[in-house]
Design the sequence.
């Protein structure tokens, strides 16, 4: 047994990082009900600005102040200008919107500063003391103290001061708070100011303790959410305990070689277990946890054929025509678009039918791809069998991942799936995707890497595009058929009201399992199709943020109509390809993407497809209303 | 000259847009490239492509920037016997899906005759097979994962992380008498395990104890890694990472006050003027950090190194990176140009270019210690000699020049090289 005491100390030092990042999240969530995923990005901007100012010879402290002020100003801007427009959306939509803001800030930082080796030095770095043979710098001690001090200060502030009490009222119920005279906008603004100051200060400390790079600082928010989950996003004391616990567990795994490579999954496993523990008693449905805004205006209407014909016509025309007109680049892109549409459909099934937000569908996409590749390389059985097996494997994982949802919904279910996506990122990085090697992982370490070609039925890129269109169309058909069975009717009731569904004897467990299996299957098949499109998959393409983007773009595309996932596919693959084709800086593209996400969430809650369907219905009504008059005139 | 060059570099790094902007190094001679006849080429363009990882965790576009500058210079100097080179650089954004798309664009839409100066973490693994079936040859500027060195149609001009880490370990063993060494590398299959594995194999052959620690690249806990490394009681630690990912390791080692207790060494990715500044005076004072160079030192004088500076000064952008990877791109463009010049300008197509690239051998330049060749077979690693520089007073000082890296698994390549006279 190795001596663990140095690792405990190192873990407490890392824990201070999680505490600092987590406290800021909880403060804003308690004060305004928004889970601010842009917290890290704002901190990164502040830290980079502080660094830049010190570089031109201005005293460091001026840089620090400028950094904190700019983080605060941006937070206030978001809180005052953008957040109110989403105040009546679900907590998860409000959280996803902050991701849009995070992308804008991140793209700006990357465009302006790029990823280069830099370091944020603080005067306290040189001072240190030894505990169990580990040197602890004064910076870390101060950061830790600061986290604790902010926690205590905020607890007192929220419980004692008039402003603090108003914030709690507002977070609990905006409308009633407004009715009883709480100055909603002013209180909200203060909450964002406090959050901005915290993000700026912690950004400078985190840049010092981790690295002064915008990408890691921005996505630090995902493990920080894990720390905050111990306190159900609301308890500040629990964030401190959770952050430190995660830091220590992660560190003491270091001397054990079998698990050391996976130890950065600690925050996600920790948070997932905590959530499971919390929901052991029964359905967790707090006021803030309820799902409010699933519109029901695009219920299935008409016969299956009436629903299908437009889709079939589009699929046939595209499948035949596109390979004749598109270049190799765009053919590859549109194959990607079609595949991603299937993955988006899997998100849409859960969101539109059951009202569940799953942020791990892109991880299931990876599972399906992994199994398909493993079977292909291992046994050389026909691709179609590999593909189905990949879908089934992802369906099984989908059900396992969905089990917590039997008793949980809303924001906390979304968060548990986010933790799963975070854990998947760590594991798939360590395992890699199979490429013809031996052993269970199928990774090749000697000799050239093997590729999975397009299936024999469709050897060329053009044929494979048509192949993908057919498979994806079958996926859409499967969903529509299941919607028309008993399961589909049960979903509709569960979405409206779970208690009512229970009361009339619907087996909620069974129909949720069906939904998760179906969603997992679709994502898995999409993953297998993608593997055959590229010939292999790469673990670096599966960060947790991709799963969040998959959900966000599904919402933008519109989850309530069959065309929505196709718009999502276009937005996720064709728009970036267009920007790449035009040689627009990839970082500018990230900014455009983030802004587009915000715009869509604010202006089009039913997505692009919702707008188009509404428009076509409007036109049909107008035209059919106008028709008799036109006919009359002619006569 | 050297210190002023780095002082200028440091100054330029403070620039707001701050890529690795450098002030023009004093270049006495006009750049030489291609036919060097001063006449702009006006014929039908020859399509050449490159794929780089620009947007993402690190900017890997320096190699293609240098190649672009060189091709600009060629085009201003008679081109390929009158025909200019049209050089298309695509950004794979560190994403394999994008890498496959842009490869389809270059190979099938643009119809490039060859690829030169590519540099990416994901591109080789994604497109190796596609290049093979399309009969496109790639003179890559910078190969990182194992796939870049173990594919039929890809041959990088750099040495690769495995070679570079072995070179670093050799210096530790031979010159600093290190007995125990820890290699810290990213837990990415065919990257960290492959390159740290090289040190392990070398260590075994000379009786040096080597321990590998692989870490998840998204890990935030550098202190534990350093503690874990120190539990092995090493004389030296190798930070086998891209330069950006190495900075937290230096910081954690500084916090544990390891300066003077262990040597730090790293592969060529850390040979960049931004590194001494980012790691601060604690590590850059001297005697503590030793970096391996796959190609020649930036402050070397004469021949191609001066010409490389001159080409970048005149035909590059002020923001172009100047480091080993930039030299690798220059070398790739130079190799390609020489091969193309031997062809009948009317008969330059994919087949003739692929044959010409494949037959490049014995290319001796001053940016590389070993002659470069493409070579037959599935394994390509022509650059297998390098140097080591110490970080001293915030700059790099070369300590050992041009020694061969001793990879025990490299016997096959050396044998083939000898039999086919590839390096002659």
Sequence:
């Amino acid at each position: 047994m190795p001596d663990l005491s140095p690792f405990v100390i190192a873990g407490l030092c890392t824990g201070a990082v999680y505490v600092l990042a987590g406290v800021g999240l909880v403060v804003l969530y308690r004060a305004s009900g928004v889970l601010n995923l842009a917290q890290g990005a704002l901190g990164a901007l502040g830290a980079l600005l502080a660094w830049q100012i010190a570089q031109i010879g201005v005293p460091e402290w001026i840089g620090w102040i400028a950094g904190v002020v700019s983080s605060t100003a941006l937070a206030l801007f978001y809180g005052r200008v953008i957040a109110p427009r989403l105040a009546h959306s679900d907590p998860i939509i409000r959280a996803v919107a902050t991701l849009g803001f995070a992308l804008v800030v991140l793209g700006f930082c990357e465009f302006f500063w790029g990823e280069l080796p830099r370091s944020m030095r603080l005067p306290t770095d040189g001072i240190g003391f030894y505990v169990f043979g580990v040197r602890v710098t004064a910076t870390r001690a101060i950061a830790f103290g600061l986290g604790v001090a902010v926690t205590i200060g905020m607890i007192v502030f929220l419980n004692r001061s008039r402003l603090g009490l108003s914030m709690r009222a507002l977070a609990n119920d905006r409308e009633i708070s407004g009715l009883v005279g709480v100055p909603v906008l002013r209180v909200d603004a203060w909450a964002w100011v406090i959050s901005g100051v915290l993000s700026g200060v912690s950004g400078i400390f985190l840049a010092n303790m981790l690295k002064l790079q915008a990408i890691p600082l921005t996505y630090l928010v995902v493990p920080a959410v894990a720390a905050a989950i111990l306190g159900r996003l609301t308890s500040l004391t629990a964030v401190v305990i959770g952050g430190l616990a995660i830091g220590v567990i992660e560190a003491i795994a270091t001397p054990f070689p079998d698990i050391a490579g996976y130890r950065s999954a600690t925050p996600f496993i920790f948070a997932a277990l905590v959530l499971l523990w919390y929901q052991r008693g029964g359905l967790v449905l707090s006021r803030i946890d309820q799902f409010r805004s699933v519109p029901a205006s695009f219920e299935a209407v008409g016969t299956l054929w009436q629903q299908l014909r437009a889709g079939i016509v589009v699929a046939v025309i595209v499948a035949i025509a596109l390979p004749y007109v598109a270049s190799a680049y765009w053919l590859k892109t549109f194959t990607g678009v079609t595949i991603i549409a299937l993955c988006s459909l899997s998100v849409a099934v859960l969101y539109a039918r059951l009202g569940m937000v799953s942020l791990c569908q892109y991880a299931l996409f990876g599972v399906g791809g992994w199994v398909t590749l493993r079977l292909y390389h291992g046994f050389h059985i026909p691709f179609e069998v590999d593909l189905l097996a990949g879908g089934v494997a992802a369906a099984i994982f989908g059900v396992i991942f969905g089990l917590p949802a039997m008793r949980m919904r809303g924001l906390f279910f979304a968060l548990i799936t986010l933790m799963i996506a975070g854990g998947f990122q760590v594991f798939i990085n360590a395992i890699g995707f199979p490429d013809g090697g031996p052993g269970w992982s199928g990774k090749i370490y000697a000799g050239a890497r093997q590729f999975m070609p397009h299936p024999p039925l469709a050897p060329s890129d053009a044929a494979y595009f048509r192949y993908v269109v057919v498979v994806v169309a079958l996926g859409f058909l499967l969903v529509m058929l299941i919607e028309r069975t008993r399961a589909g009717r049960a979903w509709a009731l569960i979405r409206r009201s779970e208690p009512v569904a229970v009361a009339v004897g619907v087996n909620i467990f069974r129909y949720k399992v069906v939904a998760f299996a179906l969603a997992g299957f679709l994502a898995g098949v999409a993953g297998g199709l993608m593997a055959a499109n590229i010939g292999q998959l790469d673990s670096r393409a599966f960060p947790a943020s991709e799963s969040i983007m998959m959900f966000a773009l599904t919402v933008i595309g519109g989850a309530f109509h069959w065309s929505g996932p196709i718009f999502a596919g276009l937005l996720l693959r064709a728009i970036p390809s267009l920007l790449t084709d035009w040689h627009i800086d990839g970082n500018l593209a990230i900014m455009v993407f983030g802004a587009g996400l915000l715009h869509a969430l604010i202006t089009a809650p039913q997505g692009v497809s919702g707008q188009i369907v509404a428009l076509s219905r409007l036109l049909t009504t107008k035209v059919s209303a106008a028709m008799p008059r036109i006919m009359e005139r002619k006569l | 000259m050297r210190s002023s060059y780095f002082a200028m570099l440091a100054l330029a790094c403070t620039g707001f847009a701050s890529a690795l902007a450098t002030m023009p190094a004093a270049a006495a001679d006009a750049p030489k490239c291609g036919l060097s006849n001063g006449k702009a080429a006006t014929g039908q363009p020859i399509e050449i492509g490159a794929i780089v990882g620009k947007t993402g965790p690190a900017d890997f576009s320096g190699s293609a920037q240098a190649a672009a500058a060189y091709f600009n210079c060629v085009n201003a100097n008679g081109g390929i016997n009158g025909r200019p080179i049209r050089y298309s650089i695509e950004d794979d954004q560190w994403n394999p899906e994008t890498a496959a798309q842009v490869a389809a664009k270059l190979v099938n839409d643009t119809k490039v005759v060859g690829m030169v100066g590519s540099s990416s973490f994901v591109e080789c693994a994604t497109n190796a097979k596609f290049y093979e079936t399309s009969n496109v040859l790639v003179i890559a500027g910078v190969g990182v994962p194992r796939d870049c060195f173990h594919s039929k149609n890809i041959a990088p001009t750099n040495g690769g992380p495995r070679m570079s880490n072995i070179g670093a370990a050799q210096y530790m063993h031979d010159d600093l008498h290190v007995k125990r060494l820890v290699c810290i590398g990213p837990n990415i299959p065919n990257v960290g395990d492959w390159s740290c594995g090289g040190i392990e194999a070398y260590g075994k052959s000379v009786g040096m104890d080597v321990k590998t620690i692989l870490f998840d690249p998204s890990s935030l806990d550098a202190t534990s890694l350093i503690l874990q490394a120190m539990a092995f009681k090493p004389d030296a630690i190798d930070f086998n990472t891209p330069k950006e990912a190495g900075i937290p390791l230096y910081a954690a080692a500084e916090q544990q006050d390891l300066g003077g207790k262990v040597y730090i060494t790293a592969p060529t990715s850390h040979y960049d003027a931004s590194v001494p500044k980012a790691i601060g005076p604690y590590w850059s004072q001297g005697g503590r950090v030793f970096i391996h160079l796959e190609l020649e030192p930036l402050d070397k004088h004469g021949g191609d190194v001066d010409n490389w500076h001159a080409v970048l000064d005149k035909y590059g952008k002020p923001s172009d990176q100047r480091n080993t990877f930039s030299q690798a791109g220059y070398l790739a463009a130079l190799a390609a140009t020489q091969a193309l010049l031997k062809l009948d300008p009317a008969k330059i197509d994919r087949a003739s270019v692929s044959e010409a690239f494949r037959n490049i051998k014995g290319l001796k330049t001053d940016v590389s210690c070993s002659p470069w060749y493409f070579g037959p077979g599935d394994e390509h690693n022509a650059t297998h000699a390098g140097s080591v520089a110490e970080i001293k007073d915030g700059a790099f000082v070369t300590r050992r020049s041009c020694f061969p890296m001793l990879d025990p698994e490299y016997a096959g390549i050396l044998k083939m090289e000898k039999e086919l006279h590839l390096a002659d």
Notes: The CA atoms of residues 182 and 229 of chain B lie 6 Å apart. Chain B touches chain A through 79 residues (CB under 8 Å). Chain B has a mean pLDDT of 88.
